[in-house]
Amino acid sequence: EHHSVKELEVRASAGKTFCLRHRMLGFTQNLNYYMLYEVIEPRWHNMEEKLSRATSMDQVLENHKEFLTLVLKECLLTDQKLLKILNKVMKICMLFVEEMEKVFEDSRKFMTATVKMVKDVSRKGKFKIYSDSMNEKLGCRKYKVMIDKFQFQ
């Protein structure tokens, strides 16, 4: 969507949306990086090393249990209060994505229907129709209230 938006004249209307999207994406990417590369990968290598020296199944099971315990703790998944907050943030991100998909899909449908009605529309004309539709959606009070809710949750 972002690449097609470059040709549209909706940057002013969609500024808060793109800023919020960027913040959410940054958060999820940083969390993902932290969990995978700062916690899981080094603990995995440590466990592999211990498993190579294990002489019994009990040692294998103990090493695996230790790995799981460390990963859960260091990924911040053992603190219930923190886990609830993290879960809420991720749900908000998912809800935001769903809402944005609806907005863009509705606008695509509107543009497609309009272009079918007006067959001799240039590419620039098509984007003008789409831009007007998007600006109308992004400028409405209901949409602005929704974006503000996401920003301050």
UniProtKB/TrEMBL annotation:
Keywords: Cytoplasm, Cytoskeleton, Microtubule. It comes from the Eukaryota. It is found in: Cytoplasm, Cytoskeleton, Microtubule organizing center. One of its GO terms (biological process) is microtubule nucleation. GO terms for molecular function: gamma-tubulin binding; microtubule minus-end binding. The keyword Protein biosynthesis does not apply. GO terms for cellular component: gamma-tubulin complex; microtubule; spindle pole. Residues 15-110 form the Gamma tubulin complex component C-terminal domain. InterPro entries: GCP, GCP_C, GCP_C_sf. The keyword Lipid metabolism does not apply. Belongs to the TUBGCP family. This is Spindle pole body component. It comes from Octactis speculum.
